[in-house]
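Narrative of activities, Objective 1.

The group set out to show that a structural description can be obtained from nothing but a protein's sequence at a throughput compatible with the screening campaign. Below is one input-output pair from the validation batch, recorded exactly as produced.
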Amino acid sequence: MLRRNVYSKESEILKKHLVLILAFILTACGPAEPWGTDQHGVRIPDALLAEQWLVINYWAVWCAPCRKEVPELNALHAQLQNQGVRVLGVNYDQLQGDALLADSQQLNIAFPVLSNDPAQRFKLPETRGLPATYIVNPQGEMVEQLHGEQSQQSILAALRQAGWSAH
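Output recorded for this entry:
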């Protein structure tokens, strides 16, 4: 009888460990971190950005070149949003909520600004200077880094060089 209790306890412990290991594996293989919301508080669905080229721009309201670059990014957003390219902003100061909305409005940003920084998701390097723009292909790989103020034409050239073509 004692032997049966020992095996029973060992079996229970083993089952608990297996459940924990399985839960860990399933969590590790789960979906990537969510995109979060945009500057207006609207949730950004994965489907909106799936299989798209991404132009991810880091900006701040105190950055003079960022202010000059925003109209170029707005034009790019309007031109390419139906051609497999999404322009996304990330506030360098990691502002959230009303502060993010206020700064986005101050710069007249027309494209979505992410509340969650996607740097880890795409293995983007640490952003040390602004503005900084990263191009990510539909497979989720960063294929280009652009530092300093960019124009609509320079970003289009970088997209084409990375393999994008207009539909």
